[in-house]
From TrEMBL:
Keywords tagged on the record: Oxidoreductase, Thiamine biosynthesis
Annotated GO CC locations: cytoplasm
Superkingdom of origin organism: Bacteria
Protein name, per record: glycine oxidase
Enzyme class: oxidoreductase
EC number: 1.4.3.19
One of the GO biological process terms: thiamine biosynthetic process
Pathway named in the protein's UniProt entry: Cofactor biosynthesis; thiamine diphosphate biosynthesis
Length: 388
């Protein structure tokens, strides 16, 4: 077995969460390695990239809202810094979002969301169907009303991932292209991983940032194994020919028959339509049913969509956690930290995750804003303390 000199930090997983963690750690002077067979891959290759802190607000997720908003506020500076370092455009578009209702049930649901947003001090404006269509002329005539949220923007996750790879390279992060097979634990402390190419990567601290795969690394003691599960999302990509542009000016979304559907228009003419949410284990098959439901629901919102070329269909796996919130920072195993479980918010939470993990890696503590997201909330002791 070959051994490499010990790094200060080893990040297991080179998706956007692992990469931002490595970049921020290296900026703080820590010698950092990322282990991943294909850095820049993962769920970001499928995600639409909505920065939807306000329109994806759910009852009971007020604490997560605080973290989502903190990250949304950091996005402009984060993107500016990344672009200046790498010279790469990440498709950050400050376009806003319109959430619409197609029938009386949707309208009632959206009214309730609006009330929750207002109670939470968030900026969102109720519009009539006619006002929605004035903003977005391609909307179906049947749209009954909507919420205009000018603060929910978008970024292109594929470009973001590519820029983060470059940022890591420019900041001196080593990218070790292999699968991490087993966590090494020595004297009650995480000390590195062994990879499938037979290398032992040693490090002072290990960050497990493997997305939906985070719970599968061999050697992680059961009591600190992250409780993440794969939540499948099927996503379509279409192209808006110049003669139809601008097809949509902002992200348009709705809940149709209980399922979320959203249309995210990129500046380059790509239109992303997502996403299913399926609890099917590790399956990433694109199914006729998934594509049918997305197109059917998107067509109800924006009938003209059927004219557009369909350029790609793809499925990815969100890292779902028991409370839909991420697991950030130190675990009960010395030397092992987590950055996973971001579920529907991985792209949105990328800037704040990088900052939180860099803080935790350099101080051993979580910053105040991230304390509720400690992985220890799922530990055996914490679960015993909860009322039945
Ligand atoms: N945040 C969008 C999704 O997970 O589908």
């Amino acid at each position: 077995m070959s051994r490499t000199p010990a790094a200060d930090v080893l990040v297991v997983g080179g998706g956007i969460i692992g990469l931002v963690t490595a970049w921020r750690a290296a900026q703080r002077g820590l010698v950092t390695t990322v282990v991943d067979p294909a850095p820049g891959g993962g769920a970001a290759q499928v995600a639409a990239g909505m920065l939807a802190a306000v329109t994806e607000l759910h009852h009971g997720e007020q604490t997560l809202l605080g973290l989502n908003l903190a990250s949304a506020h950091r996005y402009p500076d984060f993107v500016a810094e990344l672009t200046e370092l790498t010279g790469q455009d990440v498709g950050h578009r400050r376009c806003g979002t319109l959430a619409v209702a197609l029938d009386a049930d949707d309208r009632a649901h959206l009214r309730e969301l609006h009330a929750l947003q207002t109670r939470s001090g968030l900026d969102s404006q109720w519009l009539s169907g006619r006002e929605c269509r004035r903003l977005e002329p391609m909307l179906a005539p049947g749209v009954r009303g909507g919420l205009r949220v000018d603060g929910d923007h978008q970024v292109d996750p594929r470009r973001l991932a590519a820029a983060l790879v470059t940022a890591c390279e420019r900041t001196g992060v080593t990218l070790h292209r292999a699968w991490a097979e087993r966590l090494s634990v020595t004297g009650g402390r995480a000390t590195g991983v062994v990879t499938d190419d037979g290398t032992e990567l040693a490090a002072g601290q290990v960050v497990l940032a493997g997305g939906s795969l985070s719970g599968r690394l061999t050697g992680v003691p059961e009591q600190v194994r992250p409780p993440v599960r794969p939540v499948k999302g099927q996503v379509l990509r279409l192209a808006v020919p110049p003669r139809y542009a601008p097809f949509l000016n902002r992200t348009v979304r709705a809940v149709v028959r209980g399922s979320h559907v959203y249309l995210v228009p990129r500046e380059n003419g790509e239109l992303v339509v997502g996403a299913t949410s399926e609890e099917l284990g590790w399956d990433t098959t694109v199914t006729a049913g998934g594509v049918y439901e997305l197109l059917r629901d998107a067509h109800e919102l924006v009938p003209g969509i059927t004219e557009l070329p369909l350029t790609e269909t793809r499925a990815g796996l969100r890292p779902g956690s028991p409370d839909n919130a991420p697991l950030l920072g130190p675990t009960e195993l010395d030397g092992l930290l987590l950055a996973t479980g971001h579920h529907r918010n991985g792209v949105l939470l990328t800037p704040v995750t990088g900052d939180v993990l860099a803080h935790a890696l350099t101080t051993g503590e979580l910053p105040d804003e991230a304390r509720p997201f400690t992985p220890r909330r799922f530990g055996a002791a914490a679960l015993l303390e909860q009322p039945a």
